[in-house]
Every structure is written in C-alpha cells, then in structure tokens.
Write a structure and sequence with these properties.
The protein is an alpha/beta fold. The protein is 51% helix and 12% strand. It contains 12 helices and 8 strands. The strands form 2 sheets. A 6-stranded parallel sheet has the order 3-2-1-6-7-8, sandwiched between helices. The longest helix has 22 residues. It starts with 16 loop residues before the first helix and ends with a helix.
Length: 327
C-alpha cells in the first residue's frame, strides 16, 4: 500500500527496523552457508536466529498504524489558512482584488502591502497587525451587500489565491479526504472568503470570522471577535461536539504559535511552515513538523532584514504601480 504524505517520519531520527530484520536474516543465511562459527549447539542457534527474524518481521507490520485511518467517521482534520494552506494572508489578497475593483484608494492598498510584508518578514501572526488589517477590511466593506462581496470573492480567488496554495499542505488535506474524513479550514479570515477557498479545494467547510450584516448589508462590525488564537480552539471544540467527533482521533495543522490551543486539542498536531515559537514547542512535545517554504531552507527565525526591507519596498512599489495604472 502506498504511503500517505502523513506517514513520512518526523524530523527526529527513527529506528530502521527493516535494517534490523535484514541483519537477523543475514546472520541466519550466513549460518546456513556454514560461515557462522561452528558450535555443538548449532541447531539451537539456528532456531534462535529464525525466531529473532520472525519476531522482527512481525514487529515491522504493526509498528506504524495507518494514518489517517480510513472510514473513521469520528475523525476530522482542521487546517489554519494563512501561511499554512496559503502563502501569505488571505485578507491581503482579497484586499488586492477589491482595490482592482475600485473599492478603496492606493493609500489603503499601501497599508495592506505593509501588513503583508510584515507577515512575510516575521513568519508569524501579530495581534496588533491583525487588528489593523481587520479594521481596514471592515471599513472597506461597510455598506456593501454580502452577495456582492461573495461574488467578487470567487473572482479574486482565481486571480490572486489559487496559485498560492502550498502543494504539500494540499496533499495532507487530500489524504484526509481520501480516507473519508471531514476537513475544515479554521481561520481569522472572513467566513465568506474562507468558505470560498474551502469549496474550491474540495474541503468540507470553513470556520471563520463573522462580520455583522443587516438585511444582507455589512454594518462594519463583527459578531464577537476575530476567530484567532483561543477562539479557534473554542470553535473546533464546539464543532466537534456538534458532529460527535473524537478530538483524540483528529488532526490539526498550523504555522503559528498562536494556534497552540487548537493544536493541543487534537491527538495528531502538526506544525506547518512553523514560526520559531511553534517549532520549539513542537520539538519539545514531539509534534510532527513540515516546512514547504522554498528559498528559505526552513529558516527558523525569519528572513534576513535586507530581504524583509525588499519585501516592504516591493509591496509599496506594487501599490504605486497599480495606482498609476488607474490614473
């Protein structure tokens, strides 16, 4: 049976049982060819080697249980979105699409570009910057129809998001789907955007931040708070109760230490493209780590300052270029 992307070994070293079994079989073969030192109790030694080889072969067959388990209806997988499933922040890419459709000014886009550059530089979520992005987005959509934004979101996904999905993470999600399990996005991004992405990827659905609307029009306020940090864990627990899931049989995937509460809920936590805090936490607790970022060589702290400055400059130049194009 072909191995699942989830069955690959973790960063820590593993014992190669195949080599051990081969070694026992090799000793038995050498004995059979007369290359083992002759002893009076040679038949007994042959029996010992045969038993050792058989035991090791049997151990190999049960060493690694299948994961994800096929047909386990009480298991599911929960994936963070930004920098876990998608490169960068979904809200930023959505903002680019709205700018193209003249929803806001070049100055607003420059602010979005800075927020995205900071996100890429730090490799982690920052509550202050996330709050800025949230407030910017709410001010932009206030007074617009929900249906209008959803329709634009479909177009924006094709323009700016589809090509930024991490292939490695996509394969992990597909492994759960192939096993017959439900797969959910869990993100601070607007639930409408998250739902579009989940549907386009063939996932079960999405948990996201809910913006208040009245008569189908955004009010510019949230229902509660953004789905971030501990709120994600609460959402996952609530969904698990509604759908009668066993969290010990579930998996969760994230890049950020902010999602440790969510990751700690499940029996199979994974650190994907982790920030430095999450990487350290994952190693301490024996969680599996996957890093799909290219060009960074799995950098554990962040990109060099010069590269970060380049990202900021690049984002600003892109914003100005788009602004000129509109004149």
């Amino acid at each position: 049976m072909a191995s699942s992307p989830l069955d690959q070994p973790a960063e820590r070293g593993t014992v190669d049982r195949e080599d051990r079994a081969t070694g026992a079989a090799g000793r038995l073969a050498r004995l059979a060819r007369g290359r083992w030192p002759r002893r009076a109790n040679a038949p007994t030694r042959r029996s010992e080697l045969a038993g050792e080889a058989a035991a090791e072969a049997a151990d190999e067959t049960v060493a690694e249980p299948e994961f994800p388990v096929r047909g386990d209806v009480r298991a599911a997988a929960f994936f963070d979105l930004d920098n876990t499933v998608m490169q960068g922040a979904a809200l930023f890419h959505f903002g680019r699409g709205l700018y193209k459709r003249k929803f806001f000014s070049g100055r607003d886009l420059a602010r979005f570009a800075w927020q995205q550059a900071y996100f890429r530089l730090a490799g982690a979520e920052n509550a202050g910057h996330m709050a800025d992005a949230r407030d910017s987005a709410l001010s932009i959509v206030k007074g617009h129809k929900v249906a209008e934004l959803v329709a634009m979101g479909e177009e924006i996904y094709d323009e700016y998001m589809a090509g930024r999905i991490w292939r490695g993470t996509r394969a992990l999600a597909q492994a759960h789907l192939d096993a017959g399990q439900r797969v959910w996005l869990v993100t601070a991004a607007p639930v409408e955007t998250a739902t579009i992405i989940a549907r386009r990827l063939g996932l079960t659905g999405a948990l996201g931040t809910v913006a208040e609307s009245a008569d189908g029009v955004y009010t510019g306020r949230l229902v509660g708070e953004p789905l971030h940090g501990p709120a994600k864990a609460m959402a996952v627990r609530a969904l698990a109760e509604r759908q009668e899931l066993d969290l010990e049989r579930c998996a969760a995937y994230s890049d950020s230490a902010n999602d440790i509460p969510m990751l700690s809920l499940v029996g199979y936590p994974y650190a994907i493209n982790p920030d430095s805090r999450l990487r350290a936490h994952a190693r301490k607790h024996g969680w599996r780590v996957r890093d799909y970022r290219t060009g960074r060589k799995a950098v554990r702290i962040g990109v060099p300052a010069a590269a970060g400055a380049g990202a900021v400059a690049g984002g600003t130049v892109a914003a100005l270029a788009l602004r000129r194009r509109r004149r």
